[in-house]
Amino acid sequence: MMIQNRELEQLQAKIREAEERLKSRQSIAGPPRENRFYGSSGEMPSYHSRSGHACP
Which domain of life is it from (predicted)? Predict the structure, then answer.
């Protein structure tokens, strides 16, 4: 049981280290970008034909 506790603590330490690395990478990369297919509102963009009317 003691060995399992030690292994658990080591794994938790590794997880914390990985989370710290991920956070530092995200802060370097800047704020998350908008989704390519959906705007910040989450709605699908409307596409228009050359005449300016929405396509069906």
Answer: Eukaryota
